Every structure is written in C-alpha cells, then in structure tokens.
Amino acid sequence: xxxxxxxxxxxxxxxxxxxxxxxxxxxxxxxxxxxxxxxxxxxxxxxxxxxxxxxxxxxxxxxxxxxxxxxxxxxxxxxxxxxxxxxxxxxxxxxxxxxxxxxxxxxxxxxxxxxxxxxxxxxxxxxxxxxxxxxxxxxxxxxxxxxxxxxxxxxxxxxxxxxxxxxxxxxxxxxxxxxxxxxxxxxxxxxxxxxxxxxxxxxxxxxxxxxxxxxxxxxxxxxxxxxxxxxxxxxxxxxxxxxxxxxxxxxxxx
Length: 254
Known about the structure:
The protein is α/β, with parallel strands linked by helices. The protein has helices spanning 24-37, 60-65, 87-94, 108-115, 118-121, 142-156, 175-192, 203-206, 239-251, and strands spanning 13-17, 42-47, 69-71, 99-104, 126-132, 162-165, 196-202, 219-222. The radius of gyration is 17 Å and the shape is globular.
C-alpha cells in the first residue's frame, strides 16, 4: 500500500455525523477498528436509530474481538429502532480514556439524541466530523452539503468541526471517483471554513492513489462491513463478511 498518512485524532471524543446514505456508519466502524489496531483504547456508541440494517451494532462481534468497548442495546432491544440512550454513552463521553466515537443517526431524530447530550459534550474536547458523499441525493452540491451541515448543527446543538470525504459508487467506485470526491470535499471545506480531516475509500482503491493527489490528507482504508441481510456479494468470502452476516441474522432473534 502507498504511504498515506494515518488519521490520529486530536480530540478524545469523535462524533461522526452525516445524512442518510453518506456511509457514516461504515466510516465509524472502520475508524474504530483502525485506531484499535494501532494501539488506541477505543469505545464506540451506536446512536443510530434511523436504519435497522446499517448500524455499527452489526459489527459488534468483530469490534469486541479487537478490544473495542461497544456501547449498544443488548437483549430484546438489540434490533429496536428506538431512541434508547444507554447509560454507558455518558460515561464514554467524559471518560477521558482513549478515543470515544459516537455514531450518530442520519436524520433529525438521530441528531436530536446527541442534542440532548450537547451540554455534557461541550465540557470535554471533541470533534464533530461530517461525512460527505458527493454521489448521494441532497449532498451532490456544495450548497446541499452546507444545508445538511446546518440542519445537523441545529439538531445536535454542536458545530461541525471537520469533514470526512467518503464519495463512492459501491462496486462501481474507482480511483477517479475518490479523487473527485476529495476535490468536492475541498470545495465544501472552503465554503464552510472547515478542513478535510480524512479521506475514506475502499482499501483496494486507496492503493491506486498517490498521496500527493489527495494533498497528503490522512486516509482511512475501508473494508466494507455494512452489508444488508439480503445482499452478500459472491466475491466477499472473507471471514469478516461471513461473521457479520451471521451476527446480523442471529441478532434479529435476540
């Protein structure tokens, strides 16, 4: 793999936000796993009550195998689409131990949960990172991304502090798609006065892109994990995909 910079969080609390379909949860899970493998103590809280399939709780087993503290509903509440605020979330926010990641829901309801915690969050150093995907409705223009950002800020009562570029076209993504998404993210950053903190892209595609073409921005290699129950690509035969699908199906019966 080319020598891309790795993301090192400057704040102990990372709040990952983004509109529905941006790939926010995939980014949050891969970020948690990447940091854990590099020796960070990591906790991640699933605050996504929007989508019953693409939630970080679907990767609980794999993350726990890497020593990540996963804060998710257990038992009968595992598959619930309810605004459940677990006691462990508050603890993760103020712990000051390692890195805590909050995976926030992709609509106003999900963001409001974080809004209820805003006064607590503002007592600790934190970053609010918006995942930007140029190839999704409502965020395919700079104006659209900015509008979504302001809506997220209004609901969470927090200011977005940086951007994560995650432009992709699922299996049709290529290096040109990722480079275009990065350029788009830079344009959004200029409009909003923020900066692109991270570029997320499929691991095999990252290997094709020279770091200079992304201005040596930190890169997060993505191993796709958020697979819906009805869709498991035939070419994905690795252990992670099989384990995740099994966890998902069994989780529906807990």
